[in-house]
Write the structure tokens for this entry.
Amino acid sequence: MAMLDVKNLGISFGGLHAVDDFHVEIEKGQLYGLIGPNGAGKTTVFNLLTGVYKPNEGIIKLDGNDITGRSTIEINKSGVARTFQNIRLFHKLSVLDNVKVGMHNHHAYSGLSGVFRTPKFRRTEKEMNEKGMELLKVFDLDQEAFIEADNLPYGKQRKLEIARALATEPKLLLLDEPAAGMNPNETAELMDTIRFVRDHFDMTILLIEHDMKLVGGICEKLTVLNFGQILCEGETAEVLSNPAVITAYLGE
Amino acid sequence: MNKNERKIFKNNMLTYLMVIAFFVIVQTMSSTGHLSNLLNALLVPICVYTVATLSLNLVVGFSGELSLGHAGFMCVGAYASALFSNIAQNVPLVPRFIIAILIGAAVAAVFGFLIGIPVLRLRGDYLAIVTLAFGEIIKNLINILYVGVDENGLHVATTSNGYKLAAGGKQIMKGALGISGTSALYKPIKSWFFLIGIILVLITLFIIQNLVYSRTGRAIMAARDNRIAAESVGINVLKYKLTAFVVSAALAGVAGVLYSHNLSMLKVSTFDYNLSILILVYVVLGGIGNLRGSIIATVILYALPELLRGFSNYRMLIYAVVLIAMMLFNWAPAARNWRSRMLEKIRPGKERKEAA
Amino acid sequence: MMSFISYLISGINLGSVYAIIALGYTMVYGIAKMLNFAHGDVIMVGAFVILTAITKAGLAPWMSVLLAIVICTLMGITIEAIAYRPLRKAASPLAVLITAIGVSYLLQNLALLLFGADAKSFVTIINVPNVSLFGGQLTIKGITIVTIIVSAIIMTVLTLFVKRTKPGRAMQAVSEDKDAAQLMGVNVNTTISLTFAIGSGLAAIAGLLLCSAYPTLTPYTGSMPGIKAFVAAVFGGIGSIPGAMVGGILLGIIEIFGRAYISTQIADAICFAVLIIVLLVKPTGLFGKNVQEKV
């Protein structure tokens, strides 16, 4: 069974079909790329998958469960986590606290427990600190654990977003242009990190990207969107050599 | 405990110590006769406003929502508890006072919950004006409420002659005239009110500080910093905004209890939007999200107009000018740059910590 | 039936005053994105200037009204330049809100010092005869007619100004996007000053009309109408000129009906309750634009 199985997904804004008849099947552990020119509807697909928008039609199944039309919160709880194209960190919280917010639903104690500093509070916080630091180490952020997220350099902010998403213990990770604004060195490093995340956490990853080197380097399969519709899909090498894709990217 | 937690712990302890030191110093001065009657009369109100400021800071600073109806929650707490104290006169003094505090907190919390559900769906300035509206509605409704008690039980009406009391019955709440004589009921412990006030300040601090640096607090602040990201990691933003709002309302209710029990006359006109705004001024001048700053700002700014009494008519004018000047000095980007340049001149070579 | 119509008319009268104040609120909010809490107090200043100019300096009524408009306009510009402009780029929007509260305290206490706390009765300036209809069954006060006409003129002129003139369009541009407007060569500072000038000038007129209809004047006279007008602006959709007008008039009618048919003591509560209901149904007010955050 596919980890993510989307059929006939569509949404329109004021009569305009932003995404139409979108479908995708991603196997567990796969690294899948979603590419396409600006305004093709890639982020809209992410917003549909994460419940930010409710689809007008279609079915989204995660690991066999229908999650279509659920709220963002419920969808995260059932195992989808994401990052954002324009970074959205909790900027006044420390780097570690950003990750701890991600652990919110998996390491719970009541508000009263927190106020009265019960043993459960101490135990859970200790657990969270240890796990959080471990996670930060993976992304080489452990040295910065106690500084405000706002003060991180750009590249590290992108990484922290991925770490925070992983802290929610998802089955599927959605990365929205993870390499945006990075130089070639940083991008190369990011490719390693994404591969590591897939192997280390046994993660299924769907990513949106413009950087063809990154896409060609790490994605196993691709779907190309153009004007809200699927232009072509398949193995990475095949797709990237497809004349229609080249035309869509470079123009006639 | 990691580095951050140690820092927070130290910081929290420092705040408690500051409050206790304030109490010890002031109490010593007071009992040795070094405090004027005027200042002595300010001590309990200072505690009232400190609790109110701290509680508002939970909403404004940590939850990031502008509330202009905080006086409404104080009002509800004040009236509910004073009503109880007047009705339950056969309950022994100390338990009665404790129950009165709990009732004030509980009723204010219920109002916070009922108002919070619709209000917290709104954003920014819309939320602000609706909280102001709720505060005024509460004030208006209590203003026409008449409550009396006799052997048949409680009577409630919206006009002064809405009910007839049996012989020996007593009018407790008299519309715009409010509730009188509550403080007289607590005469034996009246001299302890400053201590009680300080204890309430400490309890408020305890609740807010511990709540903020816990899972709940992180969720509240995450919802403040980025609502969409918070939802994307499974945080129920509305629930946590509501939590902060209700806790804040309950604590404001406690401030109201202390207020109403310290006064012989409780009038609803005290709790208008000007009071809400005054508390907001304390919060902002003390520092948004800075609890110790809230306390310091309240003490200084509450005492300031009283200390300026010598200037009679000019005092509120001076107050207004000081307020504007302080805001400009504290917040204007130009003033901030100038200040950090000055700091660099004073401490050359030393790494300057970015002021938050 | 006649009493219903007469309540409706006095509602429109009060509402027109709210509308003029709300216009000032809404323009300033639209452009500077700040709640100018001191706006209501500018009304009070305007009224005091008129009263003093007539009773103390013996100026002609039209001269004193003109003087009030000039003084309020200058005051608006000064307040913005000294107290609000330095905070425009402050880290928190609360900073300028609190400063506005400080300015409100300042104006109130200045008036308290100069004129004392006791209520002054306002002079009659607008002498228009009452109109009697239906054989004397319904009387419309002259001041009511004047108020309604004045507010209709202001509304029309202001709409034309914003839509048709260069400074008006600059105001629209600045309220959409300050930085983009600046890049397009709009002088943002001048435009914001102009907005404050217009808003404060209108407040002076509102002061005249308010005190002509309800002729008592204290340093706190502007405070509650200010808040109500702010409610009206939000009600109509803050930032929208027709919204402020409709919101103001509706609020005036609701208030007068509330007083007449329900209870004078909770008329304010009714106004606020209606606001809450409107915002819950339409979270950005009647004419407000719904802006969704882009993800």
Summary: The mean pLDDT of chain A is 92. Chain A has two domains: 1-79+170-252, 94-169. DSSP finds ten helices and ten strands in chain A.
